[in-house]
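Retry 2 of 3 after timeout on previous attempt. Resubmitting structure tokens to design endpoint.
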């Protein structure tokens, strides 16, 4: 399954267009390699997603074409969630 579609179906990112934009800006890596929106995601892959001030690492547990909201959490496991310090705060 395409990376952008997985992020939308699993509800990690709400809209596929936003998931595509984030991936194409180089803010997502799969198993340590930079990934674009069309990169295939497989069960067992580890995704590192760089949100604004947070890095989210997840493992893909299941792939479904569609899912209900209560089933979306079963598609992945959160491995770590790290918050980065803002560099501007350090300069104050």
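Retry 2 succeeded. Sequence:
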């Amino acid at each position: 399954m395409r990376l952008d579609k997985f992020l939308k179906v699993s509800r990690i990112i709400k809209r596929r267009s936003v998931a595509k934009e984030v991936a194409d800006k180089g803010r997502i890596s799969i198993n340590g390699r930079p990934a674009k929106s069309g990169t295939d995601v497989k069960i067992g892959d580890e995704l590192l997603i760089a949100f604004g001030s947070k890095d989210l690492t997840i493992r893909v547990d299941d792939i479904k074409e569609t899912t209900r909201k209560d089933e979306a959490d079963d598609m992945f496991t959160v491995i770590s969630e790290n918050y980065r310090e803002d560099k501007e705060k350090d300069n104050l």
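Attempt log closed. The chain has one domain: 3-87.
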